[in-house]
Amino acid sequence: MPSVNRRAWLSAAGVALVGGGLEAARASAQTATAKVASVPGAKAKRTPRERIRDRNLPNLLLTTHEGKQVRFYDDLVKDKIVLINMMYAECQGICPGISANLAKVYKKFGKRMGRDIMMISITLRPERDTPQALKHYAGMHKAGPGWVFLTGKPDDIELLRRRLGFVDPDPEVDKDKTTHIGNIRFGNEALMLWGACPGQTKPESIAISILEAVDWPKPEPAAKRKGGKG
Fold it and tell me: Distance between CA atoms of 119 and 80, rounded to whole angstroms?
């Protein structure tokens, strides 16, 4: 299975992937913004976060499995932790297994779903996967609030696929859309922390990857908040 192409994401300053450097990425972004703000009369420059948004998170008008129209960035991604995958509603391959994994991850995050965490599944066959077809598929996996299945204009879905990095560097391989359904991209949009993992990874491992890599800032211990000794 080809890996997710991350080159486009890494080209934007301030992006951190799974592993070390989370604190450094956040500090770098804050410093860059502070420098612009500290110069009297200076024309505001595009922040790293704005550049990532413009390059990789197009604010396309899409339709959910419930028939609602939403803006991809404004309504689903902005200020949230997100899990994103691409799928087919009619799939005899790995789609059902990955969706079943995501259903278990959904349960692990509980009440956070739909509040600060969103799960976004995007069809690669918008010409066939109508909102009704996606609603049926969502029902099969007992999708609740905070898990949306999206369709839209074919050109918009293709643009979104490429901007999100679900691509293969080999053009011939990239033509086969089944090569793009095996990975999950996850991130903390506000902090510009992004990573990816195979969709067939155990649900526990997917949840741990998200909690350790992008679920920041961490809440302070109760004792510390009250002024007690940690």
Answer: 10
Give the tens place of pLDDT for each residue, 151-195. Answer: 999 999 999 999 999 998 899 988 887 777 889 999 999 999 999
Residue 229 tokens read as: 């000794």
- The dihedral region occupied by 79, where left means phi > 0, alpha psi between -120 and 50, and beta the remainder, is left
In eight-state DSSP terms, residue 43 is P
- What DSSP assignment string belongs to 201-212? S-HHHHHHHHHH
Residue 164, CB-side half-sphere exposure with 13 Å CA sphere: 31
Lowest mean pLDDT segment, chosen from 50-54, 58-62, 178-182, 195-199: 178-182
Reading the block at residue 199, the tokens are 């969709």
For the segment 14-44, what is each residue's pLDDT rounded down to a tens digit?
A: 333 433 344 444 444 455 445 545 555 545 6
Q: Which residues contact 146 (CB under 8 A, 6 or more apart)?
A: 106, 112, 113, 114, 115, 117, 118, 119
Cα torsion through 225, 18, 197, 172, rounded to 10: 150
CA distance linking residue 68 with residue 110, whole number of Å: 23
One DSSP character per residue, 95-131 reads HHHHHHHHHHHHHHHGGGBTTTEEEEEEES-TTT--H
DSSP for residue 78: T
Tokens found for residue 156: 């918009």
